[in-house]
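Subject: Sanity check before I submit

Could someone independently write out the structure tokens for this chain? I want to compare against mine line by line before I put it in a report. The sequence has 160 residues.
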Amino acid sequence: MRWNPFKKAALQIYTPVNGEIIPLEKVPDPVFSEKMIGEGVAIIPAKGNICAPVEGTIIQIAPTRHAIGILAKDGTEILIHIGLETVALKGEGFKTAVSMGDKVLIGQLLIEVDWEYISTNAKSTVTPIVITNSQKGDRQYTITEEKKAIQGKTVIIIVS
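---
Independent answer below. Compare away.
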């Protein structure tokens, strides 16, 4: 196959946290499992903090710090939603390390998470990673078949 200078390179989205990879359809919340927000995958976190899955710009930080949005250089919008029903924690258990508009690199710390607090006080620690602009239909999303997520090393989604 010849190199085509006009064809965009695929975007690789890395896992933002260590743990077990599960299909979005298995997330116990219909907003995610029915892909109402978009295409994606989820992680059952083992340990560690939330780090940038791509190089990009921070475009959203929930006031309760339980979710963060990143705009990748290719225009892909990625939402990392830490746990389920964690908005009710009112920010407890989360400490942000970035601000709106910050440029981030793959593996850069985004949010420190107290998983023990989250597992005790929220519905679940399952962390969906969703492409919020995937409904546009102009791209393909390939979800990994890997089961083990190693932060910054395991590619979980390829956007082409």
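---
OP: Matches mine. For the report I'm noting this point. Residues 16-159 form a domain with the Glucose Permease (Domain IIA) fold (CATH 2.70.70.10).
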